[in-house]
Fold this sequence. Notes:
The chain is α/β, with parallel strands linked by helices. Helices cover about 40% and strands about 15% of the residues. It has 11 helices and 9 strands. D-glutamic acid binds near residues 75, 190 and 192.
Amino acid sequence: MTNSSTILVFDSGLGGLTVLREVVAARPDAHYVYVADDAFFPYGHHSEDEIIARVVPLMGELIGAHDPDLVVIACNTASTLVLSHLRAAYSLPFVGTVPAIKPACAQSKTRRVSVLGTKGTVKREYTKALIRDFAQGCEVTLVGSPELASLAEAELSGTSVSDDAIRAELAPCFVGEAAGARTDTVVLACTHYPLLLDRLKKLAPWPVDWIDPAPAIARRVSDLLGARSGGIVQSGAEMIFTSNRAHGLSATLTPFFGGRAVA
Ligand code: DGL
């Protein structure tokens, strides 16, 4: 691949921007197309069959329209379900976003880890297999949050979200009482949640490590693209909503795109 590769980053909404910003930082030389499938948001409320039936053909249309060199599925709710279908249907590389259970369990000192994701993600066989394979003796608590992704969308779009609303979604992650035996690590298993990280830290009943897989995803993308040839020429960026709404959020969005103007 060349230094003008096109990377398509896909999510149900604005959460994938937290992955995009790491990928853009790792590969400022690429051209970016960010697609928010907001017409079908939130994915966490849809059945597995509905998500497969939605994402697989939609991805075909997006590949036809934008001819990307690589696609990042910046959504746990979709990745834990559709990656194998996408790889079977289309020949380009797909990088997924799945719950970072392995690194979280490797670093937990109290051996108590919580996985905070959408209701869909925590129910997936894929997530259960990650726990079977990589819990390394840790007690893993799965927390399916019904509303946190929507709250993150609201906050990023300028609607203030109350502390109580966030606290209610967060509370089940905190298990145990004694300092040496309570949850010390929380996996952010939905790409929307890092948008609220400052609030999560503030509202947590005690300090924990929050595990966001975005930097690891960016390294994987960069490895797949291969070495940059020549100097960095910053390419453009586009943002598409499947609802066809205009994004109208430029000042808020620009930092996620590494400061470039978003078409
Ligand atoms: N951003 C998505 C994820 O990582 C989920 C949000 C939704 O429910 O659509 O799981």
